Amino acid sequence: MDKKYTAITFAPVQGFIEKSRKLRDLYGASIILSYLSQQLVKAAEDQHHLKVISPAIANIQKGMPNRILIKGDFSQKDAEQVILSRWKNILKVCRLWIEEKVPDTYHWEREWSLWGSHTWEIFWGSGDNIEDAMKYLETNKLSRDWTAINWVGESSSLTGTDAIAFPRLGAKDINPNDKWTSEKGNIDKFYTALSQAIENPQDNPQDEEDVGKFLAVNEKLSIPELVKRLITLPEVARRIGIDPLKSFTEIYRLPEKKNTPGSGRWTGWFMGDGDRVGKHLKKLAEEKNGDEKIYSFSQAMQNWGKDFSKDFPPELGRIVYAGGDDFLGVIFSRKSKDAVKPKEAYSWLLELPEIWKRHNQKIGVSVGFVWAGHSIPQRDILQHCREAEKVAKSLGRDRITIRVVFNSGQYVEWTCPWDYLYILNKYRDREQQSNWSHIYQDIAHLEARRAFDITHQSSYIAKKAAIEFFHIYFPREPEKDKSLFDHKFIKHLVGFSEDDDEKERDRQIIDWITNLIKVGWHLCSNT
Asked: Distance (Å, rounded) from C-alpha 178 to C-alpha 376?
């Protein structure tokens, strides 16, 4: 008997996105992932005996979820054929474009072919109901058979993990033991020519400030990195059948004045994910008319992601991708504009819960937000984003973790439920002003005197002192009865577990208060 439901996904998704340092590479990676998912959905829709339940909308090319749920039997062989053939076509178009624009004697076709066969692994599951199909899929993901490509020579200047792509890659006379030092001249010559071909403003219209930034001559990229970069070229995108990127502004983070410490621009990065989406889908699947309810959920989330990207204020930055409940965005301004102030970023974060609720679905959202110094590599910032989001999830979900990352790599972090994030705006010093320097200096003085150090006094006394100090600058709200002395309320704020002993809970409360002040000073201070 034919199975009634099919679930399909492919990997590595996070790894493909993570191996990106430039914002353009991140964008290119997300476009490729969405395109492959869309092609899988369209292939299923072409078989009239099948119905795609999720994602519900096939014509949204950006932010397409990579987990596909189908009513009917869509074979694993067909799924693999769709993903791999479309990916190989992307590679072919990019390779031929390079060979057309930069004539040379190329030896690299076999290397491109290897990436065509060894980039993705497709996972498939089927069952008589949605739950069984999803379980089958998850079981298959545990037994992976994907094999990475072995390569020789120098690694790329971006990720440092894959071989540099250049015309003699794969040539039989290359000595794998000399680390390609003899090929340096050929590599430099190739990337200079490729950079000139890509940066032609007539073929690739960009804002004036972006010309020359698409591919720096000192960059040495691997094949997949080149593909992620080239996919954002309108000419290449059109050849593949991907909606071309109309414009793209790279993040300007360089110092305003050369050799002036601290003069670079800070930027904000936010990564969000719906809470317990898998559990919510399982619940919907078990309900009457589960197919229709999952379809409606998918449709609502896709429309939300589309609107979220479209409506994000361009003067505040851009959304890199929004796959429904999964999104990544950057807060920054163009070089010609003033830098975005941290308080502007905080003000937008206050609006995010209401923006999220526009999908009208019964799921919350956890977000990791990173306010990063100008010299932090984008790849490191993304790792901070992922870690911050995980912290928000682990402390109770439906909250945000704000991490301020300094150029030294050190950071301060504070996690807060969405319904209390406004508290930073409630700060008042003893002159009833919002001068954050006062409370910041006070907390530094008290910490230096170990006023809140639970290793030198009772944890209860240290906690009590911290809460009383907090309420000096953040008075209680009697109409809401919000006091940090209330156990239920402070548990909601801090997210500690009742399994933690009393000393550990006291420590977490103290940390929550002191970190609020440190993060608040960096985000809300006018200095």
From this structure: 32
